[in-house]
Amino acid sequence: MKAAAKCDASKSCSYLTTPPLNCQHHKNRCRHTKGDIRALARGSTRKILKKLPDGANNEVAAYSKISQDGALRGIMPKFIREIEYKGDCFIESEDLLWRYPNPKERYIIDVKLGTRLVSENGRRRPTAPTEQERRDESINKLRYMKFREEQSSTSTLGFRIDVAKLPSGKLQKDLKRHIKTKEQVLEEILGGQKWAVRKQLRQRLMTIRAGVENSQFFQSHEVVGGSLLIVFDSFVADAWLIDFAKVTKVPDGVVLNHHPNTDGYLTGLDSLIEIFQSYQ
């Protein structure tokens, strides 16, 4: 028996009487990237539903605040509403892929922003678990997270390419470990794409950065694990900020700059802009 609805009762929450489309039956149509499978389903035209983990209302609250921040308008998917169906909660938002209707021509790249992320396990490094910790099967959580972040470009560039979906439909998933330099980032994201596409992405990133810097939400909230979704085909390119499940409001009076001394969110954007500017 399904538990009662877990949506935030303090927020306006709509209720479905018919189920959302099952992502398992529409994988190619409803997912953005690997991480979204089983969590996203197509609602209606130009909309998607993202299933929330049990008891997770943090992202709903974040999107509600973001939707009221004029500085972020147009650089994030439009938040529509929170939906409950048979005890499950969903975020309904704009489908960012509707502008690219032909999946055989589009590239989709999920880039995790920030210097503090949850990365994959890796081979032994100076900060890897000690022999004693291995024997005890325990390790300090903070030290373990730092160790895992070293396995990608997170610690050096402030971002990592999490997953890429190619026009062939193939998902490139093991990108965290071997993409660490700016040259590798350029090759993975752009490859042989036309100059017009590269120029569009560069300009878009600069617009996104300005929005984050001027945003009241970002000045008062730490964002860990947020993503930059990049989508392009042979002619048109765009990017948006997504994923706000791990958002924490800082104490009143504190203003964040999102550089390495905090979550490093802007550090990642700055690195990407520098990379795109060097690719003339």
TrEMBL record:
One of its GO terms (biological process) is phosphatidylinositol phosphate biosynthetic process. Keywords: Kinase, Transferase. One of its GO terms (molecular function) is inositol hexakisphosphate kinase activity. GO terms for cellular component: cytoplasm; nucleus. The keyword Acyltransferase does not apply. Pfam families: IPK. It comes from the Eukaryota. Its EC number is 2.7.-.-. Belongs to the inositol phosphokinase (IPK) family. PANTHER family: INOSITOL POLYPHOSPHATE KINASE, KINASE. This is Kinase. It comes from Ditylenchus destructor. The lineage of its organism: Eukaryota, Metazoa, Ecdysozoa, Nematoda, Chromadorea.
